[in-house]
Amino acid sequence: MCQLFALNSNAPSAVTFSFTGFSSRGGNTGDHADGWGIAFHGESGCRVFIDDAPASRSPLAAFLREHPIRATSVLAHIRKATQGPVQLSNCHPFQRQWRGVQWAFCHNGDLKSFAPALDARHQPVGSTDSEAAFCWLMQQLDSCFPGPSRPRWQDLAPVLSELAAQLSAHGTFNFLLTDGHAIYAHCSTRLHWLTRRHPFTRVRLVDTDLSLDLSDANGPGDRMALLATEPLTHDEPWIAMEPGELFVFVDGVRVWKRRHAVASAPSEPAALRPSAMPARWDVAPCGP
Asked: Is 2 among the residues known to form the active site?
């Protein structure tokens, strides 16, 4: 299956070091060679780069490894195709505009028997189950939050947790979603995370012989959260998320979590029954 990476920070940060290790898994240290992509969110908007070449051999990926782009939220994906051919329209992250901002989404997994009814506003461009799931999520958010205003993450998080539970009934559904402010991370099988803050240390990449003294690139007030399917570095306390957990990260801190029950697929999947969705859920924030 695919692999995921994300960063969320309280100040614009570069990911050239982490992306160097992560992109190596796209055809070098890993067999995720069916395309890749990365989305950078900052104050001025969102920039998305995708390529259907293996990340370890892509000239575009090589350029991004050498030329830092600073952002407060970053999503990256390397693809091992399960549904849909190897082509640009099937490369993650996918991007959609919703309530005045650009949202980016990437998925690791395989959803079976998933054919949601999508309206004209939420149609996939490619042919992956991942993009169909993203379109369905945004369509459900439209239904749960009528009106033009953009909901707060405190309102979105419990709704997304319930929606993730419904989609997980179809198969493996690890995903990352961001509006550039908050990152929503859901674990179905494998997803790891850590927080970096002062005092920063020297770390070594797992996938290549490269190390970095983080104190050279970060100040005392900087903090960031990183997520990856598999840990990217040695010498850091990566934590495995539990299946069914959804976390929210804001300004480099985990601010919310919830775990839903992990169940086998029902005969009539709830994910295809929007009428089963309640309008709101209670919010239960947590500390870092």
From this structure: yes
Report the C-alpha gap between 193 and 222 in whole angstroms. 17
Exactly one of 2, 46, 135, 144 is catalytic; name it: 2
CATH number of the 3-276 domain: 3.60.20.10
Helix (H) / strand (E) element for 30: namely none
Number of continuous H segments (helices) and E segments (strands) in the chain: 4, 16
Query: Do residues 223 and 9 touch, judged by C-beta distance below 8 A?
Result: yes
Tens digit of each residue's pLDDT (9 = 90 or more) over 22-41 = 999 999 999 999 999 999 99
CA angle, 14 as apex, 207 and 68 as ends, to 5°? 90
Strand segments (E) across the chain: 3-13, 36-42, 45-51, 71-78, 94-98, 101-111, 171-178, 182-186, 192-197, 202-205, 211-213, 223-228, 233-234, 239-240, 245-250, 253-259
Q: Which of 26-35, 189-198, 207-216, 272-281 bottoms out in mean pLDDT, i.e. has the lowest?
A: 272-281
Give yes or no for a contact between 12 and 199, defined as CB atoms under 8 angstroms apart.
Answer: no
Alpha-carbon distances of 205 from 29, 86, 109, 233, 234, rounded to whole Å:
12, 28, 25, 4, 6
